[in-house]
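To: structure subgroup
Subject: Chain for Friday's discussion

All,

I'm putting the inputs and outputs inline so they're searchable in the archive.
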Amino acid sequence: MSGYTMQRETTYHLNESFKALLASAFSNPQQSEVFIKAFEEVVNDRATTQAIRLDRLKDEAIQEIRNELLTKEVFQSEMKATKEVLQSQLKAIEAKLESEIAKIKTEIAEVKTNTIRWVVGVGITATIVSITANFALISFLIDKLMK
């Protein structure tokens, strides 16, 4: 909406209490009428000027809103690009974490295997020691009984 169009002209009248105030301020009724008309002219002139200013303000506001919408669209596109970058970085971090978790699981499995081997080894050693001790004891007892 470019250009400024004149609104249909509206004539404003002063309210009765203001007219009564002016009439009481002047002892001459003709003077009060002159001032009432002068005030009405000022009010009507201000209203016309105000209407033109309002049209200008409206056009400026529309332009600012359009600029703001463009700024908002640019901001949204930047946010979308930033979101995509963050998502790709997050996926890379997730992949690294999954890799590290897999390594840790492998290490845990190796520790479990080593622990089982150690326990079995200790068990076998204890069994051998026990059998050997029993054999030695039995041999000793047989020797003592035979003599």
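Points worth raising on Friday:
The chain is about 85% helix and 0% strand.
The radius of gyration is 51 Å.

D.
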